[in-house]
Amino acid sequence: xxxxxxxxxxxxxxxxxxxxxxxxxxxxxxxxxxxxxxxxxxxxxxxxxxxxxxxxxxxxxxxxxxxxxxxxxxxxxxxxxxxxxxxxxxxx
Amino acid sequence: xxxxxxxxxxxxxxxxxxxxxxxxxxxxxxxxxxxxxxxxxxxxxxxxxxxxxxxxxxxxxxxxxxxxxxxxxxxxxxxxxxxxxxxxxxxxxxxxxxxxxxxxxxxxxxxxxxxxxxxxxxxxxxxxxxxxxxxxxxxxxxxxxxxxxxxxxxxxxxxxxxxxxxxxxxxxxxxxxxxxxxxxxxxxxxxxxxxxxxxxxxxxxxxxxxxxxxxxxxxxxxxxxxxxxxxxxxxxxxxxxxxxxxxxxxxxxxxxxxxxxxxxxxxxxxxxxxxxxxxxxxxxxxxxxxxxxxxxxxxxxxxxxxxxxxxxxxxxxxxxxxxxxxxxxxxxxxxxxxxxxxxxxxxxxxxxxxxxxxxxxxxxxxxxxxxxxxxxxxxxxxxxxxxxxxxxxxxxxxxxxxxxxxxxxxxxxxxxxxxxxxxxxxxxxxxxxxxxxxxxxxxxxxxxxxxxxxxxxxxxxxxxxxxxxxxxxxxxxxxxxxxxxxxxxxxxxxxxxxxxxxxxxxxxxxxxxxxxxxxxxxxxxxxxxxxxxxxxxxxxxxxxxxxxxxxxxxxxxxxxxxxx
Lengths: 92, 564
Known about the structure:
The complex is a heterodimer.
Chain A: E1 2-7, H1 16-27, E2 33-37, E3 46-47, H2 51-56, E4 64-69, H3 74-86
Antiparallel strand pairs in A: 1-4, 2-3, 2-4
Chain B: E1 7-10, E2 12-15, E3 18-25, H1 45-69, H2 72-85, H3 88-99, H4 104-122, H5 124-145, E4 159-163, E5 179-184, H6 192-200, E6 204-206, E7 219-223, E8 228-231, H7 235-245, E9 267-271, H8 274-282, E10 287-292, H9 306-319, E11 324-328, H10 358-361, H11 365-379, E12 383-388, H12 394-406, E13 411-416, H13 419-423, H14 425-429, E14 434-437, H15 439-447, H16 465-480, E15 486-488, H17 496-505, E16 509-512, H18 517-524, H19 529-541, H20 545-554, H21 558-561
Parallel strand pairs in B: 3-4, 4-5, 5-6, 9-10, 9-16, 10-11, 11-12, 12-13, 13-14, 14-15, 15-16
Antiparallel strand pairs in B: 1-8, 2-6, 3-7, 7-8
């Protein structure tokens, strides 16, 4: 199981627009990716391609989250998605 | 079409204009399915799961399609809602319910409810998104039932929207390029529908009780000037609509409101945010006659911070450097409840603890707001005045003036919305510097007629001579108090004919939606003060609102010329 900690870069937090961008990116990956707030048990992690789960996290600017994926290419997938989370999508 | 029987539906015209177009009805809201209703007869868990997945996919595709045709913020919102419709975790929890024997409608209803509850609990912005989840849910259930999706219909051709009434939320999806006119069977002249229509410049008729008979595809003539809808219009209606379409363009507002004789009537704008204020300044508004500060507070579960408030008010002051900005302190209660300030269980909230009255029940919020206003005023060049809503007595006015003065604000005033304040304008103005008449509430309280009730639309009309009498009484009181200024910031100021009457009664400034600035200015410019006074006298003496309006309009030919 590969893991990556990412810090939310959108100043508005994981609001609808940044959440939509991330959910779309996650659903385009060949692997299933989960997301959880840092410090929460892995079994409570949520589907990272679900916009509703992402919004339900209540993650704000600067919140740390854990991305997890398993399988071939997991590291690369997590690198891609962590970069999306750390971008401020509110300024674009 | 030409052989079809003509039928006239009477209502109250609340926004001028004459157009012809096909009707589309606002679909009925989606009724909740029974809690945990079983699988429909003949369905298996597999077929029902498939039916649900298909419906969700169809809704997601429709929303995606709409997003492709939208731009900017609307596109972002539609894209996000499309993703919600296709959301895997939402479908997964609904599918689990189907597997335990629940029908698709009840399953998605319950699953979305859980998500919405979770978002609501997060508060603030996320709580607002709960509405989007419920909208997606209603669309999926509509698809499952084979009925039209709720909300404003989506059509390629422009149409006349017929509805029972519109909610504030409908404004977001109302595309003025697609909607030709609004017709509602319910709602009054001060209803949300009326306010939306005026702000978008769409012809509108409310309280047309029989208009529920209108069906999709009916061709209608909508006359927002005379308040009637004609199904299957004939040559007379076509001529009227054609004349309206070729009306003379109202000249742009020059930035100085004045009568033909040069008597100045500053025309100000009603605004509710910094961006609103910029748009109003661009339209030539000479200042802000009503800054609604609720925008800073609504949809919040706790009071905004000092810094947040200073920034929000400052954004408005910045757009009007050197000009007057009248700030109304928080007007919570009645149709604008706030969890930390108002009591939702009041039996009669319009007559309850609202506006200034919340300071008695929850002291502190007002003082902190005044401090933020004073800070923002000190940071900017605007000439800041403050006023309190829902003042009934001179003592309340004095208390407010003292609070505002303590906060460091120099010019203080109160709104006249309650008849007692109109009658006591003179002693009230002994305690403060100005008054501003809120005609929407003054009308509802004078006539004892709920402004949202279509059945009382005739009473709820600012042309009612009793309402005009109270405006006259306020102006006399202000005169006796040393000639202090009286403004009007209700919807009445945006009606060019009524604006003439208000000026004739002694009102010094008029504040309105920015769209009304040019038409009001164009009509005021054609009359002098003595004529405005004599028209006001005649309106005061008219036996009814309808007659007052008709006799004043008959004397103002510019209304016809500009199609107002």
